[in-house]
Prior knowledge:
Protein name: TLC domain containing 5a
Membrane topology: Multi-pass membrane protein
Radius of gyration: 22 Å
Domain TLC: 28-219
InterPro entries: TLC-dom, TLCD5
Strand content: under 5%
Order of helices and strands: HHHHHHHH
Transmembrane segments: 6-25, 37-60, 72-92, 99-119, 161-183, 190-208
Amino acid sequence: MSPLVLGVGACLAGWIGLYALLCYTNGSCGYEWNCRLVTLFHGILAVCVTAYIGYIDGLWPFTYPGTKNTPLQITAMVISLGYFIFDMAWCVYFRTEGLVMLAHHTMSILGILLILWLGESGIESCAVLFGSEITNPLLQTRWFLKHSGRYDSFLGDAVDVLFVLLFVFMRIFVGGAMLYCELISPRPKFIIKFGGVAMYALSWVFMVDISRFTYRKSQLKYQRWMNRRRMAEVNGQDLKRD
């Protein structure tokens, strides 16, 4: 396990170093802005690496769950483990996230540690990383738009719609199919299956929050549209009187 410990330590130091560099060169934007840049970079990197693992290099996770970890799968998990430890510590220190996100990070850290220790089910872990991180760039883009005053625009609406659609498709439908294949396969250990159920349940917790946000935003958009329509009718009547 010592090479893995060194690898995780090196990746953790790398993420901390990247964050420190961003704070030094981009300090005027604030700590959270720079942390989210690190998060964005990790999301893009994780999606690219795990997509290569799932579609080109490795076995198909829906067909071969519970197989031995490959060196590339281990590398992907070590990189993400270093990031999750960094981001978990940052979120706890700055108190920016709620219990659901902290639970997600905790489960991600424990899940990757378990799979590295068992030496198997790396292909499922990489598939979960891909499905979890593919919506991350849109989530960070939404935050950057909101904090730069550009969220209330067509671009902000497009980002929200794409995020919701991608989340539902990847985390609920594809994630559900992935969990089904995991549960019916005799290869994965029970604790891995239990972890899969827990992660999928957490996705539904996120889904409830997203549904509430979607409902509130659609109601707000409808009210704004009705107000504009009333104003247009009033202005039209005034012009007729004149």
